[in-house]
Amino acid sequence: MTNVDAAASVPTKLDPHPLARCKGDVLGVKVSTIDMATLQQAIDDAVRNRTRLAISFVNPNYVIRAYADADLRIRMNSFDIMLPDGWGVVWGGRLLGVPIPNRLANDDVGEDLFRQSAEHGYRTFLFGSAHGVAEQAAQNLTRAFPGLPVVGTLHGYFDVDKGHPGWYDQEDEALILKTINAANPDILWVGVPTPIQQRWVTSNLDQLVAPVIITGGSYLDHLAERITWYPRWITAMRLGWLYRLVREPGRLWYRYSMELLRYGGLIARERLARRIEGRPLA
Question: Which long-range contacts (CB under 8 A, 24 or more apart) does 135-140 make?
Answer without folding.
Answer: 136/224, 137/220, 137/221, 137/223, 137/224, 140/223, 140/224, 140/226, 140/227
